[in-house]
Specification:
Distance between the termini: 23 Å
Order of helices and strands: HEHEHHEHEEHEEHEHEHEHHH
Helix content: 40-55%
Oligomer: single chain
Radius of gyration: 21 Å
Strand order of the largest sheet: 7-6-5-8-9-10
Number of helices: 12
Length: 308
C-alpha cells in the first residue's frame, strides 16, 4: 500500500487513510500480518510514523526502513519524534553507517540487535550494448545533487572533448535552465525510469557530484549498466565505488572537471572501471541478493506475528 506517490501528492492524506484502514483490517485476518514502513524525513515521519503507531496499537509487528541522506539532520532537529517512531519498530533497516549510528544512539542500548544494515538492490541488464561518447547525470537538477557544479565544469570539459555530450535527466531548478542552450548539453527534464536506463545502457560515464546522499540508486543502476562513475565522497558512495570509480571532493569544480577529462581521454580505463562496476553490483548489490536478505527478515517478522 502506498501512503503517498511523492512530493506534491495532493491525495497523500486520502492514501494514508486508506493505508490506516488496511492496517486495521489486518487485525481480523486469519493469516499473520506484519507492516514494513518506509520513512525518510519531514512529513514522512509524521505520515508513515502515524501508520506505524496504528499498526502497533493493533498488535502488529512493524519494521521501519529508513531512506534519504537528510535523515541524520532531521533526527537531530526532531529527536523526540524520531525516537518515538523508531522505538515502536521490531526492526530498523538502514542504508548507511551514519544513519546506523544515529539510530543506535536513539534506541536503548538493549535494542541494538533491532538495527540491520541493508543495501539497495538493483536489477542487472541481460546484455550490454555498445557504449557511446556520453556522460549521464540523473536526479534533481539542482544544488543538492551538485548539478550546478557539474554544468559549470562541463563547459570546460567539452572544450577539450568536443565529441562528447552530457545527458541531464530530472526536474531542473530555474537558475540552471540556461545551460540547456549549450549544444553539448541535452536536458531531458523529468523522464520515466526506463528512459533513464536506456541512456545508461548507451553511456560510457555516469556522474553524480552530490552534496548529500545516502546510497543513490542512480549510481547502482549506472554500475549495473557498466558505466565508469565519477561521484563525491558522501554517504556510502566512497565504499560503493572503491576500485571501480573516481571520487572527487564536494563542490570541487576543478577536481570534477579533471576527473571527467582524465576518464574521457583514457577509454581503456573507462572500460575496466565499467566492467569492475558491473561485477561489484553482481556480487554485493544485485536484486537477487537483496531479495534473499529481505525475505529472511520479513519471514522473521511474520513469525513473530503468528506467535503473538
Amino acid at each position: 500500500m502506498a501512503s503517498t506517490t511523492g512530493r506534491g501528492d495532493r491525495w497523500a492524506a486520502v492514501r494514508s487513510l486508506r493505508c490506516a484502514w488496511g492496517i486495521h483490517c489486518f487485525r481480523f485476518s486469519k493469516r499473520p500480518h506484519a507492516v514494513v514502513a518506509h520513512l525518510s524525513s519531514g512529513g514522512s515521519f509524521v505520515r508513515e510514523g502515524a501508520l506505524v503507531a496504528i499498526a502497533r496499537l493493533g498488535g502488529l509487528p512493524v519494521a521501519v526502513h529508513l531512506h534519504g541522506s537528510d535523515f541524520p539532520i532531521f533526527a537531530a532537529r526532531w529527536p523526540k519524534l524520531v525516537g518515538a517512531v523508531l522505538r515502536l519498530a521490531a526492526k530498523v533497516y538502514v542504508l548507511t553507517g551514519e544513519t546506523e549510528d544515529v539510530v543506535r544512539a536513539t534506541l536503548p542500548a538493549s535494542a541494538g540487535d533491532r538495527v540491520v544494515k541493508v543495501v539497495n538492490g538493483v536489477a542487472t541488464p541481460d546484455r550490454m550494448t555498445a557504449k557511446e561518447r556520453l556522460v549521464v547525470f540523473a536526479g534533481e537538477v539542482g544544488t543538492r545533487k551538485g548539478a550546478d557544479i557539474l554544468l559549470s565544469a562541463w563547459l570546460l570539459v567539452h572544450q577539450e572533448n568536443p565529441a562528447w555530450n552530457l545527458i541531464v535527466a530530472g526536474p531542473v531548478e530555474r537558475e540552471l535552465r540556461t545551460y540547456a542552450a549549450h549544444p553539448s548539453i541535452k536536458m531531458l527534464g523529468a523522464i520515466p525510469r526506463d528512459e533513464v536506463q536506456e541512456w545508461l545502457s548507451r553511456a560510457s560515464i555516469a556522474v553524480l557530484p552530490s552534496r548529500h546522499e545516502a546510497l543513490p540508486m542512480f549510481l547502482l543502476e549506472s554500475m549495473a549498466h557498466g558505466c565508469a562513475v565519477v561521484a563525491t565522497a558522501v554517504g556510502e558512495v566512497k565504499e560503493l565505488l572503491e576500485g571501480c570509480g573516481v571520487i572527487v571532493s564536494v563542490e570541487d569544480r576543478e577536481g570534477l572537471g579533471s576527473a571527467l577529462n582524465s576518464l574521457i581521454q583514457a577509454p581503456d580505463t573507462v572500460g575496466r572501471m565499467g566492467a569492475a562496476a558491473r561485477i561489484r553490483i553482481d556480487e554485493r548489490y544485485s536484486a537477487a541478493a537483496v531479495t534473499r536478505l529481505f525475505e529472511h527478515e520479513w519471514q522473521i517478522l511474520l513469525e513473530s506475528a503468528g506467535g503473538a
